[in-house]
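User: Can you write out an input/output pair for a complex, sequences first and structure second?

Assistant: Here is one pair. Inputs:
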Amino acid sequence: MNVPATPAIAGRVLHATLDLLDRQLRDRNGKLCGNVDDLEITRDESGQMFVTAILCGPGILAYRMGRRRLGRWLEEANRRVHDTPSHHERGERTRIPIELAGEIGPTIEVAVDVDDLASHDMERWTLQHIIGHIPGNSSRAHQ
Amino acid sequence: MPLGKRRRRLPAGVAGVAGVAGVVFVLTAGALASGCSEHSVGPARTYDDYERKSRTSAEVALSAVETVRLLAETSSDGNAWGAYTSVSISEQEDTLAEVQGDYASIQPPDHRSDDLRAELTDLLSTATDHVAAVRIAVRRGNLDGLEEIAQPLIDDSDALQQFLDSIER
Amino acid sequence: MKKLLGVALGVLSAIGGFVDMGDLVANAETGARFNMNLAWVVLVGVIGIIVYAEMSGRVAALCGRPVFDLVRERLGPRFGMANLLASFFINSLTLTAEIAGVALSLSLVSSVNYLFLIPVVAFLVWLVCWRMSFVMMERIFGLLGLCLLVFAVTVWKIGPDWNELFSATTHPHVPHSETVFTYAYFGIALFGAAMTPYEVFFFSSGAVEDGWTKKDLGENKINVLIGFPLGALLSLAIMACAHLVLAPRNIGVDQLSQVALPVASVMGRLALAIALIGIFAATFGAALETSLSAGYVVAQYLGWPWGKHNAPRTATRFHVVIALAIVGATLFGLTGVDPVKVTEYSIVLSAAALPLTYFPILVIANDPRYVGPDHTNGRFLNALASVYLVILVLVAIATIPLMIITKGGS
């Protein structure tokens, strides 16, 4: 589903895109990379509102459900543990521009790599510090 | 997905109620899981109360005694092996000890209850001794002779049954 | 031919995998206390699980995602969170009960105190979750679970008055020694044991792990329509053994060892050994399922990668949750809490939370966006499923009050 930029049908589009909320995301390689935790909605000069980005990452769902402090804590905790270079702006790794969202099947496919997303940081951290140390982590189970 | 077709969501109210219910549920469950037990030793304030607790205790004791009897019989028939019989009998012995301890610690509310207490405490004590004898025998490896050693339990069982009948309403 | 074998294995695994610690305890306890007067609850419960398991299998096959995964997006994150919290808590209690059950069955053959065996069992459970393939897990423990058929053989050997057995099932009454409240309480416990939520989480996620698609819908139906009822027969056999051997002796079931006692008494050592193998397989299999379910529900709600199908490194947080769930359950078990009591609480609380689990399944199975326009529920199925939902709500409402009134069933 592609969201057109013209505000004219923004109203109807808003309805439809709210159905995007909480849906499962897959990256360009088909890997699960979080849910649509929230949506970024922009208002243009004529007052029309339309969705400009999908938001996904630690703390965002908590914010949306009203647990601001929890959301902030989760966001901070994640920032401390991830090892992405600091030149990435805060919020850049939790924001997926809506143009990158396609929809194939029951999940929403986004044209990003799972490693670009903050939602995957803890997964990587867990791999490096815990799972990676346990023997047998890299092969499929015995058939 | 066709534009404009909204997915039906639960209205916020229902979801909120579900959320609250969920929390209440978890708390209740937690409280219950940590608190209540069948052999709960709350105080008995009336004779009826005490009688009820006496009945429950006697029933549990009867079950334990009968289980040990059946285990002894099964073992003597060669139908079970040592570990099974031994562990099972120990479990019942522990149950009996717990009932004995719990019952003894309930404060009898009046003098009428004292008679009840005296009678049941006596029965429990005798039963405990006899069950211990069976446990000692099984741990010594005497699997075939268990039925004989468990003979006294028949009387214990009858006595407990009589006790229960006597306080039956 | 190979396909037939696969279907047969699936059915057999469903039969053997139907029974867990909750069923063992609940069926034996009620058989000893209420004779066969609560047998009808098992039958009602099995129809319920058939209806809803078929729906969750269908959803998983047609949209490639398990039902729980869809709860958040279909019913909102708040409902999903309530569902997650309740499910995870009950699941943890159940996991404790199952691990304790495995440890108890091992202690009955080794004389080692079951508390020492709990950490060993926990480690084995984790290891199997880590290394054994999903299919192999289902097959091995499902098939070994068929050893529980020895209970049915025991009933046959006793040669009971079949008329009497059937009449109690079809014309149940509250025994004189019990009250309506304890009858209802144990009925609810039995119902909770028959319809425990983790079963559908596991069944649904398992369908995705096994890679089910549209062409497996038929197999789904067969597994569910044949496997579950026969599994229920195992439950009833356990109940009947308790009724025929323990009840006449005024024996109440408060230990796992007593569940197998009728088999030993009537059929001897070999049968007892088979019964214990069956109990071991049933509880170990259930421990695996509840461990995995812990991972499934958390990972699916939060959108993490999940699944046993691929290497652990592709789903790291999922495996960490599983490990933590096992550790938590182990620690709780090591406090010496009575395994049978924990089991009772887990099934009763399951009963209280059933609507939370099953309501989403009914909604999603009717949604053509997930199952396609041709595979939504038919009218009859919807009617039946809705009736069950009403029953589940009534059961859920009655649970906590009854628990308090009967003081936990005493």
